[in-house]
Design brief:
Layout lengths: L23 E3 H31 L7 H26 L1 E3 L14 E6 L4 E7 L10 E3 L3 H6 L7 E6 L2 E11 L6
Parallel strand pairs: 1-2, 4-5
Antiparallel strand pairs: 3-4, 3-7, 6-7
């Protein structure tokens, strides 16, 4: 049977999508998700409901492209609202600095130096806050796992697709969530 809902079989024991994700989020990340949920619930969903109602009033729905498009969009928004509501309930907001700010923990801004002397600045955040443009990485990523609990000037070796890479932690900083 062929169809767009058919996927290739993956061994559940080796599928990285089956690994449990941490339920941590920074205070800024939780606020951003609540803002998105509020926008979808109070602005986007009522506007789409009105559009669907107007398109349905025009008559035959089977040939009404405006009705079909807006109904699909409304269903997508409702699914996103449901997902965000459920996700926000299961998240744990980390709204304080760690006891040891001289070590790498969740929410840290870390500067790393590789073997060639090139520096890379990253931030360790929750799964819902990943932003490759800002170099915010998930706490569940291999690099973040290798960094957690390490002090300044520690060497960290990370397995990467191109081979193992060694980094030295050159700077650790935290942003005060209360500020």
């Amino acid at each position: 049977m062929k169809g767009r809902n058919m996927t290739r079989w993956r061994d559940p024991a080796k599928d990285p999508r089956q690994e449990p994700k941490s339920h941590l989020i920074t205070a800024e990340g939780a606020q951003r998700l609540r803002g998105i949920l509020d926008h979808l619930s109070r602005i986007k969903r009522p506007a789409l409901s009105a559009k669907v109602g107007e398109a349905a009033a025009l008559g035959d729905r089977s040939e009404n492209a405006d009705y079909t498009y807006n109904k699909k969009e409304l269903n997508r928004v409702i699914a996103r609202i449901r997902y965000l509501t459920k996700r926000l309930d299961e998240l744990t907001v980390v709204d304080r600095l760690p006891a040891e700010t001289e070590k790498v923990y969740f929410g840290a801004f870390v500067t790393l130096e590789d073997d060639e002397g090139e520096e890379m600045a990253i931030r360790i955040v929750g799964h819902d806050e990943i932003d490759p443009a800002k170099r915010w990485i998930s706490v569940d990523s291999p690099l973040a796992r290798a960094l957690l609990g390490k002090p300044l000037d520690e060497e960290v070796t990370v397995a990467a697709p191109g081979g193992e890479t060694t980094y030295v932690i050159t700077e650790i900083a935290y942003r005060d969530p209360q500020a």
